[in-house]
């Protein structure tokens, strides 16, 4: 129930006996929900109308229509908590000892609207002295505005800040704004006060060749790229690939610089592709510019103890089940992310020749053993660059190849039997 304000205006009265005082119109402030339904204590007018009379000798009832009041019908059952929009109520005052002696008087129920004020934007500044009235242009039609440190003070209308145009706050905080209209109805709004920190963090988001600066905490910033003009938008479009320098400045003049590496996106293509024996990297279908193939994703490169990323020539024979990684280079800048493509080789008649092929140990240290159920004519070993480093004639079902002279890394072993050949991958440790 809300009984926020009573304004002493006289309603109309149909006079009979007894001689009562005119009831008062009742006013309340609209509920925060704005739904229009509010609660009145109609019995406030009991003491108004019976002033000067012996209240114990009279009965007071309230009715929604004049006819009901005159006929003593349908008295409002909850006069202390009556829910209503603005309308007219009829009071009937009846002498208990003589029920034919009564009077009916009308008064109004009026719901006054609350002030309409948007949420107040935060006041941000570099120092500790704030002008709390900064957002006063957003407060329209109000007759009284006061600022309070505590919400409870704002609710009670006590302890208003005496110097709202030069309020001192050493830390970011909030004050509470009480806004009242002519009817005495009020709302309370929070006003955030933010002291801008000297330091802030800057990161960058990428979308193709668009750069977006992200500064934290949120606030008003300006942005510059490669020494260009400052702008309020954090977005920069159609940026060339390569290294750039960005700057972000807050309203206090503090500037943070950041180095930006804008690289092309990863090439596109199917992550699994199928080929026949003897196909090379040149046969793999990938969309991009200046494609370069690798045998690793470039992150950690565990296959190479020296930590270098080994490129593969397009002539590299594909190995069944092996994964290869493609980058693209645009305007001399190579993509940092690589597309992974796993190769599947379909069987042909020659594969049956190597159905019993075994090679061990793998990784190999000094000697690589190769065995096959079909006679082996020759064996050749190529490095990751496609260069042939060992060739050996066999003409038998088994052979030992001395690999002790090879450097650590990945190699491709081609086994030849008749007109057929098969390439497998080994690691020299």
Automatic annotation (TrEMBL):
UniProt domain Secretion system C-terminal sorting: residue ranges: 360-427
Endpoints of the signal sequence: 1-16
InterPro entries reported in the protein's UniProt record: Secre_tail
Protein name: T9SS type A sorting domain-containing protein
Keywords from the named record: Signal
Keyword Cell division: no
The organism's taxonomic lineage, starting at the top: Bacteria, Pseudomonadati, Bacteroidota, Flavobacteriia, Flavobacteriales
Recorded superkingdom: Bacteria
NCBIfam families: Por_Secre_tail (TIGR04183)
Pfam families: Por_Secre_tail (PF18962)
């Amino acid at each position: 129930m809300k009984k926020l304000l009573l304004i002493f205006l006289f309603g109309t009265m149909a006079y009979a006996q007894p001689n009562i005082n005119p009831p008062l119109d009742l006013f309340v402030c609209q509920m925060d929900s704005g739904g229009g339904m509010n609660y009145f204590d109609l019995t406030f007018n009991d003491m108004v109308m019976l002033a000067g009379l012996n209240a114990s000798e009279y009965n007071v009832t309230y009715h929604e229509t004049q006819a009901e009041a005159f006929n003593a019908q349908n008295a409002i059952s909850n006069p202390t908590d009556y829910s209503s929009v603005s309308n007219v109520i009829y009071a009937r005052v009846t002498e208990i000892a003589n029920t034919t002696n009564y009077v009916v008087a009308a008064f109004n129920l009026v719901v006054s609207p609350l002030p309409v004020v948007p949420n107040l934007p935060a006041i941000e500044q570099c120092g500790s002295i704030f002008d709390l009235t900064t957002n006063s242009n957003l407060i329209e039609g109000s007759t009284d505005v006061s600022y309070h440190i505590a919400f409870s003070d704002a609710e009670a209308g006590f302890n208003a800040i005496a110097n709202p145009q030069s309020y001192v706050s050493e830390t970011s905080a909030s004050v509470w704004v009480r806004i009242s209209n002519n009817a005495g109805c009020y709302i309370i709004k929070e006003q955030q006060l933010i002291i801008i920190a000297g330091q802030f963090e800057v990161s960058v988001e990428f979308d193709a060749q668009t750069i977006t600066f992200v500064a934290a905490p949120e606030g008003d910033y300006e942005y510059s790229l490669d020494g260009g003009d400052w702008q309020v938008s954090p977005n920069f479009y159609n940026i060339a690939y390569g290294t750039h320098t960005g700057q972000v400045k807050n309203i206090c003049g503090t500037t943070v610089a950041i180095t930006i590496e804008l690289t092309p996106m990863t090439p596109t293509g199917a992550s699994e592709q199928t080929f026949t024996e003897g196909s090379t990297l040149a046969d793999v279908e990938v969309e991009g510019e200046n494609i370069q193939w690798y045998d690793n994703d470039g992150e950690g490169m565990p296959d190479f103890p020296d930590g270098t990323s080994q490129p593969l020539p397009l002539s590299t024979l594909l190995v069944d089940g092996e994964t290869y990684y493609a980058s693209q280079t645009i305007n001399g800048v190579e993509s940092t992310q690589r597309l992974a493509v796993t190769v599947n080789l379909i069987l042909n008649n020659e594969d049956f020749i190597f159905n019993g092929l075994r090679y061990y140990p793998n990784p190999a240290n000094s000697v690589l053993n190769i065995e096959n159920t079909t006679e082996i004519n020759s064996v050749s070993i190529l490095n990751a660059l496609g260069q042939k480093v060992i060739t050996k004639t066999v003409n038998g079902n088994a052979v030992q190849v001395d690999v002790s002279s090879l450097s650590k890394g990945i190699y491709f072993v081609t086994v030849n039997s008749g007109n057929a050949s098969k390439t497998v991958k080994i690691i020299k440790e």
